[in-house]
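Writing this down once: the sequence line spells out the residues, with the fold written below as integer tokens. I am pasting one below:
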Amino acid sequence: MLRPSQLSQLILVLLLIACSAPSTTAKTQRPGFLFTRTTGRCTPHYWGSRREAWPRMVPQTSTVSKVFGSRAYERYRSDLTLLEATVRNDEENVYPRLLKQASAALLNSYARKGFPYSAWEVKTLVIQALVSDKAAALQAQRFSVANEACH
């Protein structure tokens, strides 16, 4: 039987070992002081950083209203570009979050083999999600999961 002092030392050693083990998410996330921002190859942050050429079908200067249609035109600024949508920071509101994740999903649908959504599915799902806050939040979350899982 271990004494309390030995037990606390053992716990401390185990914690140190666990904390020093390399994380599998270290490649996709950078530690931040106040928050952690994911930077995988399929995230809005990645596409907004312009580290990779955008697919020809969707230039950075494409407007959201031209890409996603008249419903998007009603919801967002008419001159808002996809590049601007990927770098927005106003994710507290569900509609900008939907647009940010949908823009990355659309780019991924063109640029990444095996991405779970085709371009027309992304566009259709965005239009359908614009009907309510709940639908927009749910679809933004689904796009986010697909974007994070993509490689």
User: Anything to note?
Assistant: The radius of gyration is 20 Å. Residues 23-38 have pLDDT under 50 and may be disordered. The first helix runs from residue 4 to 20. The chain is about 55% helix and 5% strand.
